[in-house]
């Protein structure tokens, strides 16, 4: 099936308008309403912005809500904007692009999942060696780690009810494998895949 490739100068919104197909093609059945949930959010727009390390907030290692979008300081001088295409495009259009600033749409090259619920930290502890306690990774924390042997960027953004929630992003090619690995790690906690 042919797809149209946007021109070099196409806007972020134009690039995000390409038809998106999730890397997660199958989801395990089961789980309960009281257990943690695993949701495929790969269709959200994911825009990487690179600039001078102190060019904008939040700093490295922290996440900040900007309207309906989330901005994660995932590396020194590198931010990941996550949200609807129009929100990310409006944010990028409002940036001061003078100097050394680059903007790259990673929507189609990255998978993203949300693991949420009171047992979510315990699920992550089974497949990742980081300390997921509130003291080490409070809400708003952004880290990079190996999750089930896949390099991931993770932002803790708790649910409105205060339950722990993690946005987990990885290369698209690992999407199905990582989704299945997280779901398998959550089986004993009655994880439900959405």
Q: Beta-sheet strand percentage? A: 25-35%
| Named CATH architecture | 2-Layer Sandwich
The CATH class is identified as Alpha Beta
Rg of Cα set: 17 Å
Shape: globular
- The helix content, as a percent range, equals 10-25%
Determine the CATH topology: Gyrase A, domain 2
Strand order of the largest sheet: 8-9-10-7-1-11
Major beta sheet summary: 6 strands, mixed
Q: How many beta-strand segments?
A: 11
Total helical segments: 4
Please name the fourth-level CATH homologous superfamily.
Answer: Probable tRNA modification gtpase trme, domain 1
Number of domains: 1
Structural class by SSE content? alpha+beta
Q: Point out poorly predicted stretches.
A: 1-7
Q: In words, what does this structure look like?
A:
With 194 residues, the protein is α+β, with helices and mostly antiparallel strands. Helix content is 17%, strand content 31%. It has four helices and eleven strands; from the N terminus they run αβββββαββαβββαβ. The chain has helices at 12-16, 85-93, 120-127, 175-185, and strands at residues 37-40, 45-50, 63-66, 69-75, 78-83, 102-105, 110-116, 142-147, 150-156, 165-171, 192-193. It is globular and about 50 Å long.
């Amino acid at each position: 099936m042919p797809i149209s490739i946007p021109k070099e100068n196409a806007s972020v919104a134009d690039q995000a308008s390409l038809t998106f197909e999730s890397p997660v093609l199958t989801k395990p059945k089961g789980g309960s309403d009281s257990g943690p949930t695993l949701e495929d959010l790969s269709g959200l727009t994911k825009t990487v912005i690179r600039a001078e390390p102190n060019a904008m907030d939040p700093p490295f290692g922290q996440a900040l809500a900007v309207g309906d979008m989330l901005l994660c300081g995932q590396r020194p001088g590198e931010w990941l904007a996550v949200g609807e295409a129009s929100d990310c495009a409006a944010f990028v259009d409002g940036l001061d692009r003078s100097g050394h600033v680059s903007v790259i749409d990673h929507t189609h090259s990255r998978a993203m999942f949300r693991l949420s619920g009171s047992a979510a930290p315990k699920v992550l502890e089974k497949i990742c060696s980081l300390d997921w306690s509130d003291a080490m990774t409070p809400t708003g924390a952004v880290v990079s780690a190996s999750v089930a042997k896949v390099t991931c960027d993770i932002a803790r953004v708790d649910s409105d009810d205060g339950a722990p929630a993690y946005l987990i992003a990885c290369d698209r090619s690992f999407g199905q494998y990582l989704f299945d690995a997280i779901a398998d790690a959550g089986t004993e906690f009655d994880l439900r895949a959405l």
